[in-house]
Amino acid sequence: MHRPCRLCGQHKKLCLSHIVPKSFAKRMKAGSPQVVEVTISDTPTTAKSNGDHKEYLLCEDCERHIKVCYEDTGTIYLHRKKGASENKEYIIIPEFNYKSYYLFVISIIWRASISSLDIYRPAQELSKLEPYLRHCIKENTLYLSPQGPKLDDFIKVSIARVVDLLDQIKQETLDRLLFSLNFERGENETEGLHYHMMLDGFLITASILPPGSPLASNWNTPGRLLDRRHLKAPKVCFSVIKPIFEAISAVPTTNNPFAPK
């Protein structure tokens, strides 16, 4: 299939591109044919899925660029947690590459924003930002222009480890929950747009805030990514994360993977 590549723009044979890297779904299945996928709406649902959402988007060269620059580290970083330490409140992961992991998250959001799949329709809200996301992914940079602002000035990424503090749901069950890029709008324009996804038991949130807004300048949410050599991810009980709690509560009792241990 020869069409313009959505990243480089050249007319080439396109690959069947995964929106969320396939290694996540493969690992989260843990030998099972399916994962549990959450869909957020006015009535949240949880259903079994192969988690394999893909379409023709990128040429082979651009697929390789994203894999080498972002996915090779981003897809295994939280899973391996090499040298990680933890206590009751946090997981602390050393040797953290901020730019690489930040752009890894952005690359997933960007692919969702250009996807025609119904499951990613909410990401089309980012159509005005798409050229900026594409530029940063293609050039492997946080800068929108040589002397201009940075992408992370107004798109903030945070991460939290999802646990059950009551120890009623197995951690391995929560780790198999695929929360595939769901959308939340702030109560007003200054509160921005928020995209959530849950991979490998970590809830990752990208918050798009108005440039120059006080909220963007003073972003202090727990688990926010910081440009430093380690990642400190707070542990958060699933019951206080409203979309996840509502979706898990909506699962029928029969064959419920979230039934107490």
Descriptive notes:
The protein has 261 residues and is of the alpha+beta class. The chain is built from 7 helices and 12 strands. Strand 6 and strand 7 (90-94) form a beta hairpin. The radius of gyration is 18 Å and the shape is globular.
The average pLDDT is: 84
The parts where pLDDT drops under 50 for at least 5 residues are none
Q: Biggest sheet, in brief? A: 9 strands, mixed
Give the overall shape, derived from the CA principal axes: globular
- The percent range for helix content is 25-40%
Radius of gyration: 18 Å
Which structural class do the helices and strands define? Answer: alpha+beta
- Secondary structure tally: strands: 12
- From the N-terminal CA to the C-terminal CA, the straight-line distance is 48 Å
Spatial order of strands in the largest sheet: 4-3-9-10-11-8-12-7-6
Run of helices and strands: EEHEEEHEEHHEHEEEHEH
**Total DSSP helices:** 7
Q: Approximately what portion of the residues adopt beta-strand conformation?
A: 25-35%
Number of discrete domains: 1
